[in-house]
Amino acid sequence: MHSTIDSPLPAVPRPIHGWIESSPDPVRVSRYIDEFAARHPSTFDLLASDQERARWLPVIFGCSSFLSEEILRQPEWLACVADFHQQLTAGDYKDRLAGFLQKRAVLKPAALDLAMFRRRELLRIVLRDRVGIASLAAITDEISSLADAILACALATVAKDVEARHGKPLTESQGGAKEQAVFTVLALGKLGGRELNYSSDIDLMFLYSENGETAGPQVITNKEFFKKVANQFTNMLSTYTAAGVCYRVDLRLRPEGTLGEICLSLPAAKEYYSKRARDWELQMLIKARVTAGNEPLGQALLDFVEPSIYSTTLDFSTIETMSVTRERITEKLARKRFSKNVLDVKLARGGIRDIEFLVQCLQRLHGAREARVRHGGTLLALARLHDRDLLSTTEYSRLVDAYEYLRRLEHLLQLEDDRQTHTLPTNPADLGRLARRMNTAQDTPQVSTGIATELLKDLNQRLENVQVIYERIVHAQRPLHYSPLSSNHPSGNHQPVEQRGEVDVSGEILDALARPAPIFAERLRQRGLHRSERALNAFLSTLLRQPQQLPLLNSHPALADWMLELFELSPYLGEQLARFPELVEEIRRAVDHPTRRWAFEGLAAPLNDIGGLRRFYRREMFRIQATSICLREPVFATLDNTSALAEFVIARAYRIALERALAHARSRATLEKPFYDPQNEMMVVALGRLGMREFDLASDADLLFIIPDAEGHRQRFWTRVAEHLIEILTSYTGDGTILSLDTRLRPNGREGMLVQTESTYRDYFSTKAEAWEGIAYMKARGVAGDRATAFLNELQKVDWRRWGQSGRSRQDLRQMRMRLQREQGTVAPLKATEGGYYDADFILMYLRLKGAGMFYKSLNTPERIEVVENMGHLDCSEAEFLLEATTYFRALDHALRVVTGRTEERIPAAPEQREMIAELMQRWTGRRLAATSLDSDLLSLQTRMRRVFDSVFTH
Hints:
Layout: H1 14-21, H2 26-39, H3 41-48, H4 56-63, H5 65-73, H6 90-103, H7 111-131, H8 136-166, E1 169-172, E2 178-180, E3 183-188, H9 189-192, E4 201-208, E5 213-214, H10 222-238, E6 248-250, E7 263-265, H11 266-275, H12 279-284, E8 289-293, H13 295-309, H14 316-334, H15 352-366, H16 378-387, H17 393-415, H18 428-439, H19 451-475, H20 497-500, H21 507-514, H22 518-527, H23 533-545, H24 550-555, H25 557-569, H26 571-579, H27 584-592, H28 600-603, H29 610-630, H30 635-667, E9 683-687, H31 688-691, E10 700-707, H32 715-730, E11 740-742, E12 755-757, H33 758-768, H34 771-776, E13 781-784, H35 788-803, H36 809-824, H37 829-832, H38 837-850, H39 861-870, H40 876-900, H41 911-925, H42 934-954
Parallel strand pairs: 4-6, 4-7, 10-11, 10-12
Antiparallel strand pairs: 1-2, 1-5, 3-4, 3-8, 9-10, 9-13
Helix pairs in contact: 2-3, 2-4, 6-8, 7-8, 8-10, 11-13, 14-15, 15-16, 15-19, 16-17, 17-19, 18-19, 21-22, 23-26, 25-26, 25-27, 27-29, 29-30, 30-32, 33-35, 36-38, 38-39, 38-42, 39-40, 40-41, 40-42
């Protein structure tokens, strides 16, 4: 409609016309202005008649597509831009949110209501920002206050909903009286520092006061109650609506990250941070604050951990440890594989993250002595560091200038589409528009065409300034005598690591080891280490303080060699050794008895020692993984051993939980026969990887709890047993958790009862279950309780009649596989992409259904392949390929877990990690693999796998 700014604008009043001409993108603004005037003439006339508000439309239309579209649909939002010159607090936003909901006649806010309110209020904040009446600090503070109000409303909504079903969560005070347990939400990262972006993730952590149970009607433990609150709260904030999402929630900074509980009690959190928290986890708490829920509870944890956060001396080890954190962050970012032509204002050297890291580094060094520098906000912390002469005036001014410039640039990038992005556009036209937005105060004339070049020049100058300060300040803390070289190398021969071909152990540590363990120290000197020297140095330092294991390492060369192999090939297991040096005994057990299959019953702690059970699980898991690496054990043998361990601890936890529930029932005098002589009536059934006996390090255990129909009237008792079992296995203490459990695969998912009867399962799978649920139960296996195998055999027949006998299985399974590929292929490419592991899994499930729905009591992948081959559904070459491919897939997945200690969905970009993965896979598959060709090898295998999949499902 308007091709140039010179197009006549007869319908537009002259003041607005002037703002259009001076805007960063006059053509776009002109188009939006015309559309708004045509749709909402009365509102347009009202705005145009006001000298101050006449600029609002050009401002929004010139910087934000998503807000432009919103005010075209919701012109009344412009009338809500009240108190334009005033900075609003969280309390103000809570009042505005209450009025917003009242006007919409909303009694129970939903995700859409909160997302709409967020966008409406962002309109006001953006106007304050772009018109130039508020500073960067004021803008980020307001965005954070808005988030606080929305989080408080969401928490109140979900807590009320969960309380209606389960009653108030109660705990027992020291005097024996019942009091209500409370819950808090801690914000970390930018929200914690009150420096939130327009479109940031929010880093949260959940905490509740004490264990106990609810008052009913459906009684559950406090832990389960608050887990429901935390999950529903997260889902509400993260749900995509017509107004986008409120906030993308990131919970990975909680204790133990993705492997940890979604929420912890205050005692468990204190235990973790006092004994087990890693240095970077303490660093993250510098920005922590209470954003919603019970403030005294959250503050109690923050007050408890604060002394641990700040160093008492200018100790280089603190700086060095934080540098390791920074390197880990950089390695993570390398996975994103940024092009050399793409500049990321957050992650680039000298970018936002480096400034924040530098500030936290100085805070940790000086915070014990100068309490005033303890603050979560970067700008205020910089000011206080300067006030205390911990930054020079030049350093301070350059860091503040760079930080404000980079954050303004980041805001403009995110404002366009309400999308979390930090990368500059590569398209010259888009870069030019961005440059004009950075340099246009709305009343200035249009700038020259060379502005994009000037933007890059200004940006690079600021990045270089930060890099210089970073190197000067951080490296100034390094003592001159510090050297990572071993005593074999003269101090003058400082060859780079990459030129030497190996990384040496610290010379000081070797000299100290030579006295109590001379043979071991000499072996370390001769052998060297190709990688992971930091973890090894940490481990050796621990041994010097706690030397109980040194005589064993000194007298057992094979043990020392195994230990060094673990450090070179598994940073995760190396970290475990550094934290728990007593695990050396488990390596010795594996070295001395390489083929022995250990009886867990004789090794586990006494029945009621839950802490001992946790330590037992940690020891055995470590031994199994060490054996996997050093003995080059076939990957499916390792997974079988890991599954047996998980099955044992679940069965042991079941026994403990049953005894607890019986004791509770007896104390209330409600117990009836036959509970005086329990018979394990409840079945515990595993699905997924544990059901297939392919459970691995950091796997979730999918569990179901099923009782015979005759026990239906005691469902509440068995629910208590199941809840106790879950608590035993998942509660976090100083010894960590045992397992991560998922119980959502029961009939009706989260809304279904935790414990259900056999007839409920039969009825559900006969009439209601979707195809994917029926397929999931094909991997079911009983792991505790009586008669699970018999019942699963019955359920398998129901499953087969519905999905196999009907002949629908081929079409249904293929559609299901394609859906998984569409929905998960990009986020979980190793499993879900075209030709990934799921292709093989679906082939085997289909051929099993084709074979009259046979029930497998034991069903790992090699056994499934053998069975369907023997039935004639696979020829020899197809079976061999499936075995080769699934072994490769499982070996790759296992290698990723062993290297990182967690589930990973992609091959990492970091060269060192790729080398470890290639070497581990060669041990387990027998194939010669190169770190540089992992991606191409995988793609070749996936291509062949898809051909086999198509031949099975299309012919």
